[in-house]
Amino acid sequence: MTEDQEYIYDSLVNQIKMGFFPIDEIKEMTWEQVEDEEMEDDVSEKWVNTTIEAEFKKHQEARKTWKSPTDTERLVKAFNELSEANIIALHNAGYTTSEGEYEVVEVEIELRKQQVQSDGYCFYHGQDLERAIDPDTRNLMIAFQKIDNSDDTVTIEVGKKVAEKLKDNGFEIIWDGTALTKIEIPNFDWQKVYNDSEEDLLNHNRVLQFMVK
Predict the structure, then answer these.
(1) Which residues pair with 145 in a beta bridge?
(2) Is the pTM of this model over 0.85?
(3) CA triplet 143, 148, 154: central angle to 5 degrees?
């Protein structure tokens, strides 16, 4: 592969391993990336589509070796339980911390329309997920806070609830107990294959079903 092809290859494999988008959407996103970065002379659309199809099949085959519940399944369970405990818990929220915080606020707006106010929130974003998938890091960082809060004591209480729920679901965590440090899940083995019959974790309003009684 050329240098450009390797760059695009790493990107499309990440999207496949994340498991949030159908194969046709990954093809569209990848080709848009090629065009945006003006790599069309070196990376053809046919190569993109063929490579995605091959890698998707490999990922589907790999799934047969996974032991259930996977780390990803246990994380989904923990986040669902946090939402039931009135903590907004979002998967793959934006690409950065600030984008994740914006998406949390959007959910809080919907909650308040139904006379509900959260006791806090947590999420991981796209960059966090990339680090979890990277075999050289394999850690997942979880941000936490409460909306419109500047009291560290309140923040830490939210962090304790998140940390406890993660431990209840079998995760080892690393956290110094302060308001300024994210909760780390080391040695996280992200395992997910996109399936349109499964719950859409990117639909953040899904937490409403847990939080609006």
Answers:
(1) 121
(2) yes
(3) 65
